[in-house]
Design brief:
The structure holds two protein chains of two kinds. By secondary structure, chain A is an alpha+beta fold. Chain A has one domain (2-160): Aldehyde Oxidoreductase, domain 3. In chain A, 33% of the residues lie in helices and 38% in strands. Chain A has helices at 24-34, 67-84, 115-132, 152-157; strands at 2-5, 10-18, 40-47, 52-53, 56-57, 60-65, 87-95, 97-99, 104-112, 135-140, 145-147. In chain A, helix 2 (67-84) packs antiparallel against helix 3 (115-132). The two termini of chain A are 26 Å apart. Chain B has helices spanning 7-13, 27-37, 39-44; strands at 2-5, 17-19, 52-55, 58-60, 72-76. In chain B, 29% of the residues lie in helices and 23% in strands. Chain B is of the alpha+beta class. Chain B contains three helices and five strands. Chain B has a five-stranded mixed sheet. At the A-B interface, strand 6, helix 2, helix 3 and strand 10 of A face helix 1 of B.
């Protein structure tokens, strides 16, 4: 857990990159136990889609990452968010390894005094997680597999910040 | 110098990392040096618009970035996290 000094408030920043699943309710309760004085909590939970390609069903997704760098990059994105909005807590969990449709992939929680800052922070962090954190997805079907291609639209989203 | 590869770059080159004595002083110089070594590198690096680079675990935008004092260079495709 990293404690970062802001002008008025301390923000708890907690980041995990893990193979294990997570529980959104546990994470929310954890924040509420530690800090009771926030006005709102915004969350994003990403999961593996039940997708099909050429009539073939996705069996599983494999997430590869650059272990020495992943957490550093996520920390840097969260620090940028802290520079933009007054936040009380940020919690990010990103899973790696083998995941099947319906599995959780990513969780972003942010708390602040007012909803607008929490909403914006979660959206900002997600936008940058998509195209700035060294994680790659490979889709596995019954007879073939392919690396997910990055979307130009994801990259373009970054310019709005 | 330690050179790392991820995702399809790792698959095309066949290893996740390797240690090499490098003469090049920039990222693009390193790519040119690797491409001369073996065909697998020229295949992997055939389109640089699909290549992202981290020098000592920091993303760089400019292929002319110096690697003179770098310990670790990583090559990978555009990221698809989240």
């Amino acid at each position: 857990m990293v404690k970062l000094a802001k002008e008025k408030i301390f923000c708890n920043l907690s980041i995990s990159v893990q193979e294990l699943d997570f529980d959104i309710q546990y994470e929310i309760d954890n924040i509420k136990r530690r800090k009771k004085n926030f006005g709102g909590l915004a969350s994003f939970l990403g999961q593996v889609r039940h997708s099909a390609e050429n009539d073939k069903t996705l069996l599983f997704l494999e997430l590869e990452h650059y272990p020495d760098m992943t957490e550093k990059e996520i920390t840097s994105i969260c620090n940028d968010a802290l520079g933009k909005w007054e936040l009380h807590d940020i919690r990010v969990i990103h899973r790696v390894g083998k995941l099947i449709p319906g599995d959780n992939i990513v969780l972003v929680l942010a708390t602040s005094s007012h909803r607008e800052e929490a909403f914006k922070a979660v959206e900002f962090i997600m936008d940058f997680l998509k195209s700035r954190v060294p994680i790659w997805k490979k889709e596995h079907y019954e007879n073939n597999s392919s690396w997910v291609k990055s979307k130009k639209s994801d990259e373009e989203l970054l310019s709005r910040w | 110098m330690k050179i790392l590869y991820f995702a399809w770059l790792r698959e095309k080159i066949g290893v996740s990392f390797e240690e090499k004595e490098i003469k090049a002083v920039t990222v693009i110089g390193l790519i040119e040096e690797l491409v001369l070594l073996d065909e697998k590198y020229s295949i992997a690096f055939s389109d640089l618009s699909f290549i992202r680079v981290a020098v000592d675990q920091k993303l760089i935008q400019d292929f002319k970035t110096s690697i003179k004092d770098a310990k670790e260079i990583a090559f990978f495709p555009p990221m698809t996290g989240g």
